[in-house]
């Protein structure tokens, strides 16, 4: 099969316009495979695609949640000290942090209700949110029984490793 660059360009254009994900052409010893990445592959909100619990090891050392005590504060996204988020002074408050870098989702799909709301009681193992990393959805679960005191990030925000997500009393 002899194919010139113009014919190859036409094949690529046809595949893209027809929304073909992949096409392979074989003739004799010659193989041509064209793989297209459409806009649908780049949509950031696809929590229903793959759910994987955070308990799946992603690090050589499992990340541990930490609790901020009464006089501690965290700077949110490079905020000034005057804009620091002050956490409650109650010693039994636990802050749930992100186990990885990714995109924060409060619900499994745009039409679904949020997993939790402020003031809602949660039990150990309840799903609090989803953090998407590399198109894999990781469920973040409650590690203690309590009440959601604060949700510290917004739907669709990028979160960093160990960034506070929820405050539970």
- How would you describe the shape? rod-shaped
Total DSSP E strands: 13
- According to CATH, what is the class of the largest domain? Mainly Beta
Note the run of SSEs as H and E.
Answer: HEEEEEEEEEEEEE
Overall mean pLDDT: 73
- CATH architecture classification of the largest domain: Beta Barrel
Q: What is the helix fraction of residues, given as a range?
A: under 10%
Query: N- to C-terminal separation?
Result: 69 Å
Number of domains: 2
Report on the structure:
With 169 residues, the protein is mainly beta. It folds into 2 domains: 37 residues, no CATH class; 126 residues, OB fold (Dihydrolipoamide Acetyltransferase, E2P), CATH 2.40.50.100. 8% of the residues lie in helices and 33% in strands. It is built from 1 helix and 13 strands. The strands form 4 sheets. Strands 3-10-9-7-12 form a 5-stranded mixed β-sheet, with no helix packed on it. A 4-stranded antiparallel β-sheet has the order 6-13-11-8, with no helix packed on it. Strand 9 and strand 10 form a beta hairpin. The longest helix is centred in the N-terminal third of the chain and has 13 residues. The radius of gyration is 23 Å and the shape is rod-shaped. The N and C termini lie far apart (69 Å).
């Amino acid at each position: 099969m002899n194919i010139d660059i113009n014919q190859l360009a036409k094949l690529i254009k046809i595949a893209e316009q027809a929304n073909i994900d992949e096409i392979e052409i074989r003739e004799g010893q010659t193989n041509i495979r064209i793989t297209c990445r459409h806009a649908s592959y780049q949509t950031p909100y696809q929590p229903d695609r793959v759910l994987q619990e955070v308990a799946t090891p992603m690090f050589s050392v499992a990340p541990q949640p930490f609790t901020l005590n009464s006089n501690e504060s965290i700077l949110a996204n490079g905020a000034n000290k005057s804009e620091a988020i002050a956490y409650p002074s109650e010693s039994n408050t636990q802050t749930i942090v992100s186990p990885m870098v990714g995109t924060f989702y409060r619900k499994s799909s745009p039409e679904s209700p949020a997993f939790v709301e402020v003031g809602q009681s949660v039990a150990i193992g309840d799903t609090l949110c989803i953090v998407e990393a590399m198109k894999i959805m990781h469920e973040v679960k409650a590690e203690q029984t309590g009440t959601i005191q604060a949700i510290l990030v917004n739907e669709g925000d990028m979160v960093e490793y160990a960034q506070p997500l929820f405050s539970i009393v």
